[in-house]
Amino acid sequence: MARTRKPRKKRSWWLYLLAVIALAGMVAWAWNWWVMRSFAPDTLLYPEQGAAVSDRQGEVSFPAVRAIGGQFVYLHASQGAEGQDSRFGSSMRSAQQAGLKVGAIHTFDPCIQADGQSANFVTMVPREGELLPPAIALEETADDCPERVSDAAVESELMTFINQVEMHTGKPAILKVSERFERTYRISAQLERGLWLTRDRAQPSYAGRPWLLWSANDGLVTEASDEPLEWVVVQP
């Protein structure tokens, strides 16, 4: 007796459904990508807005940042014990001449001690009263360090570094905490410092308490630079 073949209609229906789901996903991704190219929070809700700038953006026109509504910029200055942004000094002067308030960012390295990092920061960032409070970017955890570093050691060195930076600048630091760093160390509950959180478009809540600064779009396309800007707003 010949075997009865299963009808192909059922298989075709499932293939059609999968194709529709895949197409819908592609459309949603494309729509979100297009919207995020120009997304910035409403200035009625967040009157004070600006940008975070690193060497990733290349040459930045700070008058253009001012023209599109920026009132301040945070410039990446140093990273770990040796990393330095060669454009920091010239960018700081150009931004100030454009009428922008300027702050400096140091990217903290959890794998090394605080003293070398603070020396690097002090070398790059002048003790200038007009600068905004320093920001410390807490992005990576100690999971990828060449040698094991305990959570307690990371937290201790971070506190030492904060104290050294605040002594140099005379201002309390702002902690630019990634979701990964916060999930690992719960630093927001331990240190009473202003928080700078990051999440595209949706307000971040991963720190468990209110933020001071919010990076609302990591890819804002503007005439200010060839590469997208990280757009930041201040809690009103």
Could you explain how this protein is built, in words?
With 236 residues, this protein is an alpha/beta fold. It folds into 2 domains: 11-40; 41-234, TIM Barrel, CATH 3.20.20.80. It has helices at 8-38, 62-67, 88-97, 114-124, 151-169, 179-185, and strands spanning 49-53, 72-79, 83-84, 101-107, 135-138, 174-177, 194-198, 213-220, 229-234.
Question: What is this entry, summarized?
Answer:
The protein is an alpha/beta fold and 236 residues long. The protein is built from six helices and nine strands. Strand 4, helix 4 and strand 5 form a beta-alpha-beta unit.
Determine the structural class based on helices, strands and strand pairing: alpha/beta
> Which term fits the overall shape?
globular
Q: Give the strand order, joined by hyphens, for the main sheet.
A: 1-2-4-5-6-7-8-9
**Could you estimate the helical fraction of the residues in percent?**
25-40%
CATH superfamily of the largest domain: Glycosidases
- The unreliable regions are 27-35
What string gives the helices and strands in order? Answer: HEHEEHEHEHEHEEE
- Oligomerization state: single chain
Report the CATH architecture of the largest domain: Alpha-Beta Barrel
DSSP helical segment count:
6
The total domain count is 2
- Work out the strand percent: 15-25%
CATH topology of the largest domain: TIM Barrel
What's the end-to-end separation, in Å? 79 Å
Mean of residue pLDDT values: 89
